[in-house]
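Researcher: Can you fold this with zinc ion in place?
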Amino acid sequence: MPAQTRLFRCLSDNYGVLLHDPETGATAAIDAPEAAPIEAALKETGWKLTDILVTHHHADHTDGIMALKDKYKCRVVAPAAEAAKIPGVDETVHEGDKVTVGKLTANVIETPGHTSGHITFWFHSEKIAFAGDTLFAIGCGRVIEGTMPMMWQSLLKLRDLPDDTRVYCGHEYTAANIKFAKTIEPNNKALLARDELTKQQLAKGEPTIPVTIGDEKKANVFLRADVPEVAATLGMAGKPAADVFAEIRERKNKF
Ligand code: ZN
Ligand code: FE
């Protein structure tokens, strides 16, 4: 039976998401921005929390962990490199490890850059990836602890996932990301189409995620640093893609 998901808003612009295995009843929260909206989502769905899968140590992804763990006795899985900064960790994982939620299995992909130990949970057979603050819809996370080349490599790993992979990310930043992306690719048809779609979704109060890898490849300028036209627009024709990516990320920081 396919996995079920429940997406909801937390804090000011974070997303919370539950992943449920209907066969076993297992339910994971991916990150725990705050306990109350996660408990509300559990109540609405009738699902019982068994696991929390943590993408990185930032407080807006971990502050809800202990309250949920106390109440549901759930297992907390976190990146090994950041476990010391995350409360309540039961199990640590590295690149290539497998994490099960009931009968659903995730591959752990290390995607450092935003933080130095950030991971992505990829549920291959479900065609779902939980990318935390690495890849956003038409954007990517700020490079806080890692380096620009490190973040570019992490984004390439995600770009290499199958096109029909649905990506859930940590924040609702899509409208601002599109505004920025249009300064670099004002004539990108896929980007302009996403702009329209996003406006419609937000006007209806709907989330703009998940997005697919296939759609992001066409419209997300941060995944397009190795497209010659993008480099040329930035006056960087022939430069290494990691340098072009760094320029795009720095422009976004100042935008
Ligand atoms: Zn973060
Ligand atoms: Fe965050």
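Model: Folded with zinc ion in place. Residues 58, 60-61, 133, 170-171 surround fe (iii) ion (ligand 2) (CB under 6 Å).
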